[in-house]
Amino acid sequence: NAGVTQTPKFRILKIGQSMTLQCTQDMNHNYMYWYRQDPGMGLKLIYYSVGAGITDKGEVPNGYNVSRSTTEDFPLRLELAAPSQTSVYFCASSSYRGHTEAFFGQGTRLTVV
Amino acid sequence: QQQVKQSPQSLIVQKGGISIINCAYENTAFDYFPWYQQFPGKGPALLIAIRPDVSEKKEGRFTISFNKSAKQFSLHIMDSQPGDSATYFCAATVNNDMRFGAGTRLTVKP
């Protein structure tokens, strides 16, 4: 059982480039989330989805986009990368809205130079 | 606005000692309070969680104390072990919104 799988694990982007962070879960969870983790700041919610075709903004959505075409996949798109997007990104999923255990992927460390 | 405030930022404890991490929240609508443990290079993993209708929950060496009137909750790690060295995050949840504290880096010295 793989759980939540994120790719890539590391990436260096130049300012203005775009990329997609991939996230797949095999637990048939309806709820999926994207967080960014900055040193000393905890995790900030970027976007979340309550099911295929339904997404909504979290606390820090600017500069990001998401889509949810299937239950399993929840990719995060960065358009026009900026140094402020240098961070560690975590995808998570849960079976119900927030009141149950959220399972996290291993993270993607992104550096924008 | 930091909706969940966590302290201390770092903590060093001797093996066998008690580790205590504190969190305070502002939004009284929060109704689920989990603690996550994160090892370097890994994603956070649920350690223990509590709902606001109970004042304490214990699982092995880990205990959450919850004070609803003060809007505070804390994690106690009894008989701390070097293997407990990790970063701990408190969180508070309402509906689909889970807000995290800034994290506490715990080091347990042998």
Give the structural class of chain A: mainly beta
User: Biggest sheet of chain A: strands, sense, closure?
Assistant: 7 strands, mixed
**End-to-end CA span of chain B:** 38 Å
Oligomer: heterodimer
Q: What is the number of beta strands of chain A?
A: 11
Rounded average pLDDT of chain A: 92
Summarize the helix and strand pattern of chain B as letters.
EEEEEEEEEEE
Radius of gyration of chain B: 13 Å
What's the Cα radius of gyration of chain A? 13 Å
Helix content of chain A: under 10%
* Strand and helix order of chain A: EEEEEEEEEEE
Tally of alpha and pi helices of chain A? 0
Q: Helices and strands of chain B: which structural class?
A: mainly beta
The N- and C-terminal alpha carbons of chain A lie at a distance of 36 Å
Shape verdict of chain B: globular
Descriptive terms for the model:
heterodimer; A: 113 residues; mainly beta; 0% helix; globular; B: 110 residues; six-stranded mixed beta sheet; five-stranded antiparallel beta sheet
What is the element layout, followed by pairings?
The complex is a heterodimer of chains A (113) and B (110).
Chain A: E1 4-7, E2 10-13, E3 19-25, E4 31-37, E5 43-51, E6 54-57, E7 64-66, E8 76-78, E9 87-94, E10 103-104, E11 108-112
Parallel strand pairs in A: 2-11
Antiparallel strand pairs in A: 1-3, 3-8, 4-5, 4-9, 5-6, 7-8, 9-10, 9-11
Chain B: E1 4-7, E2 10-14, E3 19-25, E4 33-38, E5 45-50, E6 56-59, E7 62-67, E8 72-77, E9 86-94, E10 97-100, E11 104-109
Parallel strand pairs in B: 2-11
Antiparallel strand pairs in B: 1-3, 3-8, 4-5, 4-9, 6-7, 7-8, 9-10, 9-11
